[in-house]
Design goal:
This protein has about 500 residues and is mostly helical. Helix content is about 70%, strand content about 0%.
Amino acid sequence: MSGAKEPGRGAKEPGSASAGAPPTADALKPGSASTGAPPTAGASTTSLRPRAGVLLSLLAGRTAFRLALLGANAALLASWGEGPYEHYARAMGTAQVLTTITSLGIEKCALKLVPRARRTGPQLITVFLAAALLLASAAAIWLGCATLYASDGRHLGVLGPLAGLYAALLGLNMVLVGLCRALGRNRADVVNFAVLSVIVLTGAGGAALLEWGPVAFTGWLLGGTALLNLAQLPALHRAASRPVRRDLARQAVATSLLMAAGDVAASGAVSVLFAVLARSRHHDESGHLYLMVLASSVLLNVFGYVMRLFQPHVSLTLRSADPALLNRRVVGRLLPVALWGTVWTAAAFALTRSAERAAGLEPAVTVLLLYLLCVPLFFAVGSLHYLLENATAGTLRATAVAALAGLGCAAALGLLLVPLLGALGAVTSLAAGEIAHALAAWLLLRGGARPAAPARGPAAPPERPEPVAPHALPLETAAVRAESATDPTRQGVDR
């Protein structure tokens, strides 16, 4: 197993005869569970660093789903024509933020906390499962009310609410398979996205052969995703545990909210720009922008998914990293990335406009070209954000605020550029939002990325971390803290 340590000798499951013996550090790692026992919450047999075979199979499932979406939308454009497809793309692009709001950082938080918690893992599963179902239900109720009671007094179209409900259920699906992975059930993730790929491709076939319109196609996606979510619930319900400690639930929810800020800001910027584009004179470019978003998701989502697979390993490593090293290697690179990104984006925009005028490029090609030129900026800012949100509680809060600042910049600039430039203005606004994200994070962290202010007097010994207020530690594993307080054998081992 790549990068995994061998199980500690004599390590037993909590229910074994020698469970009362003081466990070793290796025995408390998820990869040290006794062989033969099924993985449970907090006691998964999966290593913190995924094996190459597991990594490839998980990537294959997600990549197949993204490619199926891209191919299906190209087929839908050919089947429906630009008019109906523009209507469909506008609805799906505007509803995209609901996928992130429904998941709300729960998947990332679960992958961070559940594998480290032995006794409170089932309670965390209960908290995350209840939160995801509550968010999905709230989104469904809100969409229903928006459909029945439109602000202008007219009944809204069917496609918009269907697209919103599908986006919400897709976000719930991401949470459910993320919880399965946290429990060591990686096969459920692979099967889930294989089935989603089949649903998308059969829906595209229905549009081509049975002349399904946008409403029928979206309804097919909605129904298939709902059934797939129902199929995931029984196993997760069995892994859950009740009652749940109130402080555990509070800290888990706080961590999820902070870790969701980056994803919500990114998808929120896309949704805002779609809404602005739909109300501008360039509304016919909505289809081009949506195809660009789908094409880019093959790269960006796979990149983000790889980082998420390594998240338990990375967060455990960064938790004990030297603050000076973190400032130099990560925080110190935020300002250069922001400055370089400003120059790069301006040059990319000028190059794209020149190529459009000289070669007479189609609008769809122009939008895709500008976006591809901005991909290095998106990768750079996303990587730094990922490292900082997994480092300390202070850096997590700073990245959350910085991501929201990026959203505000992208939305404000989009209101100016999209009416003038159409989809090109939307892509430029997205790049500007990433630059503002990096700059805001640097401004918030330039004084030092420390988990807490240093105490006066002699420095504490290296093996005793300085205390931090409980409310300032949403990133710290609440489950491990709760267990350490009641089990003397675990105190200090998981820090």
